[in-house]
Design goal:
single chain, 304 residues, alpha/beta, 11 helices, 40% helix, globular, binds zinc ion
């Protein structure tokens, strides 16, 4: 029998990674309502928005207002995604303490996404980490398409290992490996996770998995065996991938929590309450979300 961790931390990213791909404008009221419901459901860490230019991501134009209206709850970590120095300055002004930085690791992706080379992105990210530390913010450093961009495994593992090493040496709060395109498989997860763990010492490792090819939860299990205890998830499996038409979203919070709890791994999450919040946003968006459990669970069912 594999030895699994006793407890896992799920970071909810639906309000950012999920909402940003939705064309229908989501009112700030509803965003705050969903975030509040997620806190009540026991999610300890929520990525609530991103400070990006509203011209590129209109759905995130209310970042400051969302932040201002978040309930102050002891022990809850709110984070925001920032992709450049301007976004970081806005986050600082808004009082954000935890910032999630993220860079592309594939040249084509980097050019398409931010119009920079990977090396330029790295230099900018180092600058941002120094800025964040200078102003008392905790930066998480994330790497995109770690498990493949155009095809599975086409991202150089050595490059990822070097980047993880470099940023953990800078004292970032955590290192995040993103399977942005959903190309990882359980064996690749274990190989790449172990290679990164070998160079980052005590820096926590986070996996950001998309369920594009249906391998999301299999990849979670493989990562648990490798000792990973932090995952990004989104309610209802909200989210998409801008490069793959019809791609499904992040691994679903309630599905992931349910699998973990059934295997004896604690999450502290009330799965029925997450399912209820997923149905609420599903009703607003008037479309089925890709997660499985939210459609099956009656309200306040005693499910673990
Ligand atoms: Zn994502």
């Amino acid at each position: 029998m594999a030895i699994l961790p006793d407890r896992v931390l799920l970071c909810e990213v639906g309000p950012r990674d999920g909402f940003q791909f939705e064309a229908k404008p989501i009112p700030t009221d509803l965003k705050v309502e969903i975030i509040t419901a997620l806190i009540e459901a026991g999610l300890p860490r929520i990525q609530v928005t991103s400070f990006v230019h509203p011209k590129w991501v209109p759905q995130m134009a209310d970042a400051e207002e969302v932040f201002r209206r978040l309930p102050a709850v002891d022990g809850i970590i709110y984070s925001a995604l920032v992709l450049n120095t301007r976004g970081l300055e806005r986050a600082l002004e808004a009082g954000v303490r935890y910032v999630d930085l993220s860079i592309a690791t594939n040249e084509q992706h980097s050019r398409d996404n931010v119009n920079m080379t990977v090396d330029e992105s790295i230099a900018q990210a180092e600058e941002m980490v120094r800025f964040a530390h200078q102003y008392g913010m905790q930066p998480q450093m994330g790497f995109q398409t770690v498990f493949g961009y155009a095809s599975p495994g086409d991202t150089s593992l050595q490059q990822i290992v070097d980047l993880a090493h470099r940023f953990s040496d800078m004292g970032v709060e955590s290192i995040s490996l993103a399977d942005s395109t959903g190309m990882a498989n359980p064996v690749m997860i274990q190989e790449r996770v172990q290679a990164v763990q070998a160079v980052i010492g005590d820096t926590p490792l986070v996996l950001h998995l998309h369920d594009t090819r249906g391998l999301g939860l299999a990849n979670v299990y493989a990562a648990l065996e490798a000792g990973v205890t932090r995952f990004d998830t989104s309610l209802g499996g909200l989210g998409g991938c801008p490069f793959i038409p019809g791609a499904t979203g992040n691994i679903a919070t309630e599905d992931t929590a349910s699998m973990l709890e059934q295997m004896g791994v604690e999450t502290g999450i009330d799965i029925a309450l997450v399912a209820e919040a997923a149905r609420r946003i599903e009703a607003f968006l008037e479309k089925r979300l890709p997660g499985k459990l939210h459609g099956l669970l009656p309200k306040s069912a005693p499910i673990t």
